[in-house]
Design goal:
Bound molecules: adenosine-5'-triphosphate, zinc ion
Shape: globular
Low-confidence stretches: 211-216
Family: Belongs to the helicase family. PriA subfamily.
CATH topology of the largest domain: Rossmann fold
Radius of gyration: 30 Å
EC number: 5.6.2.4
Number of domains: 6
Keywords: ATP-binding, DNA replication, DNA-binding, Helicase, Hydrolase, Isomerase, Metal-binding, Nucleotide-binding, Primosome, Zinc
Protein name: Replication restart protein PriA
Number of strands: 33
Distance between the termini: 51 Å
Strand order of the largest sheet: 13-14-12-15-16-11-17
CATH superfamily of the largest domain: P-loop containing nucleotide triphosphate hydrolases
Catalytic activity: Couples ATP hydrolysis with the unwinding of duplex DNA by translocating in the 3'-5' direction; ATP + H2O = ADP + phosphate + H(+)
Length: 771
Amino acid sequence: MKIAQVVLDIPTQALDAPYTYLVAEEKNDDLEFDVAVGCVVLVPFGGRRACGFVVAIEEVSELDLAQRMDPSKLKHVIRALGPAYFDEEGAACAQYLSERYIAPLSACVRLFTPPGGIPRMVRSRDGHWRLEEPTVGEVDDRWITAGPAFGEFRPRKNAAKQIAILKALEAGDLRAVELSAEFGAVASTLKALEAKGAIAIERRRRFRGDAPRGNSFVPSVKPQLTEGQKAAVDAIAQARAAARGETVLIDGVTGSGKTEVYLQAIESVVEAGRTAIVLVPEISLTPQTVARFRGRFGDRVAVMHSRMSQGERYDQWDFIRSGEARVVVGARSALFTPLSNLGLIIIDEEHEGSYKQDSAPRYHARDVALWMVRRAGATLVLGSATPSIESLHAAVKDPLWRAVLLPERANGRPLPQITVIDMAKEFGQGSRSMFSRTLARALEEELAAGRKAVLMLNQRGFAKFVLCRACGFVPSCPHCSTSLTYHEQGAYLTCHHCGYRIPVPGACPECASPYLKKFGAGTQRVEADLRVLIDGFSSVTSEVPIIRMDADTTKGKNAHQDLLDRFASADAAVLLGTQMIAKGLDFDDVTLVGVINADTMLNLPDYRAAERTFDLVEQVAGRAGRAELPGRVMVQTYEADHAAIRAAARYDRALFLRDELPKRKALGYPPYVRMANVLIWGKDEKSVEGQAKALQRDLVRRVSEYGGSAWRVHDAVPCVLAKLRNTYRWHIVVKCPVDADIARVLLPLFRARKADPRVSVAVDVDPNDLL
Ligand SMILES: Nc1ncnc2c1ncn2[C@@H]1O[C@H](COP(=O)(O)OP(=O)(O)OP(=O)(O)O)[C@@H](O)[C@H]1O
Ligand SMILES: [Zn+2]
């Protein structure tokens, strides 16, 4: 007998194991899809029908089955709704994700399906369930080609459209949409021509968006590798030869040519008939990045990121499944595309927080990639100028890791000199500007010489808010526990979590004092002040464009790239932006980088705050002086003595770690412990608190029985963001030794937990932050 293990696509079946169904030996008719691993199937479930994903198929004897369960209770799969989306390996990965991250199996399986591309059951208003077809799928274009009678057919003299269409066809095949764009309604004309055999109409698969086929690309030349690059390429080759899932950490300064190392490593993987995945942070997935890979691998490159439409992603997904794509470049979800024969995974800027997903399954791309390469005997390459503390730690401790240093830039140029400017001193000396005199002077010199500057405003932890000078009142959101953010344009206050919005009050709502002070500065405000500053430079005669790059100006699909193109084509110009400009920019004539506020994130209640600050300063500094012209970097801060800033200014990671690691050890944070953050949330404050406290007791019991003496369950407390969109949030932090399997100990507790409609619970294993 054939049985299938099916993961139901029903949220309340959250952490449940798959259900067993029988698979009929004979299909109802030949046109149906086979019930196979990776299919979406329709099954009976509790008096209705449900969709589910097949994660295993087994052939068992009646006797064996009877020993496991009562066969008379088993129901049959009704039918498969489509072809397989993943294979046994994908099913195993989904299983791993669900256990490793204590996440619903259905959410893990869904990662492997094309977005919007699977059918599901929906409940209509009258309470009936019905099957909803996928919202996206393949698209076909109608193409017009010459028919068997093309040469002989003579249209009548007054059939102008027929004549024109046949004439146009002489130059080659045409799409129906192009014809109607040119000649207006053509449907009846085409039908008439087809009936006479003069033309044929056929459907051809079309790839949406910037898909690879037919897309032009400029082949790039391979440069002579530097010694460091050669060592890195060799290390990757050795790791591949060992075929035991090794990791190579490329610890290379900004501009050391890490991308060229990736390209050459991929080249030999592809030559050996295997495939590669390259993950880059979402924001740096620009056409420029993609062009570097297409320049080398042409139309064998597939691209996946969240700014693409569902249709575009579907087409790329399908292109990968066809086996023609050999290299996938994408954001973290590219790990789950149907790429077979994997030889290499590359994670660029591996320290980036965006590799961790912040909804279930809360996976980290690095950990999933590690699991994948170990299963496949493939190789993982991590690259960064500022590797995460976890990776640095693993590179020392783990025998399957090796590190390669690229301490110099590929072109032999020195790293730019970094100057720290103490803003407290500036203020003490009477300067009230947000630009220190040193930075202003440097900016004037560079702009007068016709060169470019990049200025970064660190917005993390940098809220713009309104404060009453008389009573100290700060307007806050009534639905979320955050102060309202001040927007200069339009003079309103808004909550960045829920969108709540009010005009700036004329007087303090608490004490009626009219003296409300606006604190902090957004990019718009900095832009206005910068304009005034630059216009006052006597030695700068031409108009200097300021290109502002922040969440507001980069909303559109190509906005990010358009802004960068404008910056590239200008003479003297300033690129002013948030953290998003810190990475990846490679412009020859940027000679000055300024950080307007380096320290705002140091005060966040986040154990990674210092590490993030160090990384950010190093990364943004790396944008300066990348070619012939030397660069300089000015870092403005109120905490000039902070180790993260002092160390970053000297490119001295050892100095930073000597300060940071003992703190992490003393306070019990990674890399010395592992953590799980248990989140409890709901609309009713009392029941959230009650459940949180009950869960804490359960956790304490569970951990004392199955954990060990080194484990710790912290008290259930409200989160830093205690209220979000009218939802109350509590959390419980669990810590254990680094080598302990935290998920294995906690998972049974959450599997056994009964779903409560009022209170939701989720576990974040190895959380990025505890906010
Ligand atoms: N072997 C080489 N010889 C000469 N130029 C090179 C070589 N390798 C790379 N380059 C050039 O050096 C520049 C920096 O390379 P790349 O962008 O790959 O560095 P990176 O290490 O990824 O930098 P970042 O971390 O700052 O993004 C690029 O313009 C690249 O074309
Ligand atoms: Zn709010």
